[in-house]
Amino acid sequence: MDGETSTAKKAVATVTSSTSSPSRYEAQKRRDWDTFLKYLKNCEPPLCQCRCSGAHVIEFLKYLDQFGKTKVHVAACPFFGEPNPPSQCTCPLRQAWGSLDSLVGRQRAAFEDIGGGAPESNPFAANAVRIYLKEVREAQARARGIPHGKKKWKRPRAAKATLNADDGGGGRGSGVAALVVSATMV
């Protein structure tokens, strides 16, 4: 176990020491990876990274919730669904979805940097982790009353007017005329 851990640290150190000083991203990636290895070491029984799965990653993300700073209202809270609650409540603090998403991205890259194996064996890229992150995002959006759906794509007004004013072919232009008019208007 300790041999694998030190090998992983050496691999990450080799990647980051190739430059004079690591970037903020590389330094954060290293700290995150060290935290994950420490978590695996403290598990009962201790786990090695080669046996780690998406379920272990989800447990790690849940473990990190205790250090979160984002208030996530529970369904029974009177402020559930309110973006700006008027007063304090006793709802738990959790890790924000964006922080977890960034962490998973850095961990995925760190796993690849240390030569953790084939991309399919990367536990941070597991489908279960993606589903968990999606559920966290949706739950936090509901708790704050913020819809987190896809934004609808809107056509630029100039192109829309051109399509309607084209050659009268059923309200649909050739597309080329719309591009020419849009390009000349810019």
Distance between the termini: 62 Å
| Overall 3D form | globular
Q: Helical amount among residues, as a percent range?
A: 40-55%
* Radius of gyration over all CA atoms, rounded: 24 Å
The side-by-side strand order for the widest beta sheet comes to 1-2
Structural class: mainly alpha
Q: What's the helix count? A: 7
Low-confidence stretches: 171-186
Mean pLDDT figure: 76
DSSP E strands, number: 2
Task: List the secondary-structure elements in sequence, H or E.
Answer: HHHEEHHHH
The share of residues in extended strands comes to: under 5%
Largest sheet: 2 strands, antiparallel
Q: Which characteristics define this entry?
A:
mainly alpha; two-stranded antiparallel sheet; globular; transcription
Please outline what is shown here.
This is ALOG domain-containing protein. The chain is mainly alpha-helical and 186 residues long.
Structure description:
The protein is mostly helical and 186 residues long. The protein has a domain at 24-144. The chain has 7 helices and 2 strands; from the N terminus they run αααββαααα. It has a two-stranded antiparallel sheet. Helix 1 runs antiparallel to helix 2 (24-42), helix 3 (54-64) packs parallel to helix 5 (127-144) and helix 6 packs across helix 7 (176-185). The longest helix has 19 residues, at 24-42. It is globular, with a radius of gyration of 24 Å. The N and C termini lie far apart (62 Å). InterPro entries: ALOG, ALOG_dom.
